[in-house]
Design goal:
Elements: H1 3-30, E1 36-41, E2 46-49, E3 54-63, E4 69-77, E5 83-86, E6 100-103, E7 114-118, E8 127-139, E9 149-152, E10 156-164, H2 174-194
Parallel strand pairs: 2-10
Antiparallel strand pairs: 1-3, 3-6, 3-7, 4-8, 5-7, 8-9, 8-10
């Protein structure tokens, strides 16, 4: 065999191997985006609360991948001096392809994303900002039902702001209002009797 024929055959074999490899890897390349969206509730992450009050953020999380499952594994928040942050509310939902999970903040049900107890000495109008960071893993199927781990996901960051609002002025109790109303009726009745 002539050397040029040998190299032409070798080149053809390499090209065929490259095409075969591309065909085998095509499903992986198509599924490579591995993306999810993550946002806070209220939208924009701006939260207002009073000094000494426990308030918090909910979340909306969407697996935008059409073939793979997303499992959140790490959630963190910037530390801030305005209050004590608490990440015990997040439930780390397992998301099927295209699925969305949302949860409003509810301190009694331990639901939502993060809570913050605003410092009792916080001044009216004071505010502070930070970032929530969420990372996770990608699986070929439900990780609780035989799915195969594919890779760790890129972390997604979303901003938040906490601001101290006005302290609400307590409204008079209904019993006090009722008593004032009754005294007014009695006074009007006595006036009518004296005439």
């Amino acid at each position: 065999m002539k050397p040029t024929h040998y190299f032409n055959r070798l080149r053809g074999g390499i090209a065929a191997a490259g095409i075969a490899a591309a065909m085998l890897l095509a499903p992986l390349v198509q599924a490579a985006p591995f993306t999810f969206t993550f946002s806070t509730l209220p939208g924009g992450g701006v939260l207002t609360g009073n000094a000494g009050q426990l308030v918090g953020w909910g979340y909306s999380l969407t697996n935008t991948d059409t073939a793979n499952w997303f499992v959140p594994t790490e959630l963190s928040a910037s530390s801030i001096a305005l209050g004590t942050m608490d990440g015990a509310y997040f439930d780390f939902p397992v998301l099927a392809p295209g699925a969305t999970q949302s949860a409003a903040f509810d301190a009694a049900l331990l639901a939502g994303l993060y809570g913050i107890e605003i410092d009792a000495a916080a001044a009216l109008g004071q505010s502070e900002s930070g970032l929530f960071t969420l990372a996770g893993e990608w699986w070929s199927g439900d990780p609780l039902a035989g799915g195969i781990f594919l890779q760790a996901g890129e972390a997604v960051v979303t901003p938040f702001t906490v601001q101290v609002g006005a302290t609400a002025v307590p409204l008079p109790g209904t019993a006090a209002l009722f008593a004032i109303g009754m005294l007014g009726l009695l006074a009007a009745r006595r006036r009518a009797q004296l005439r």
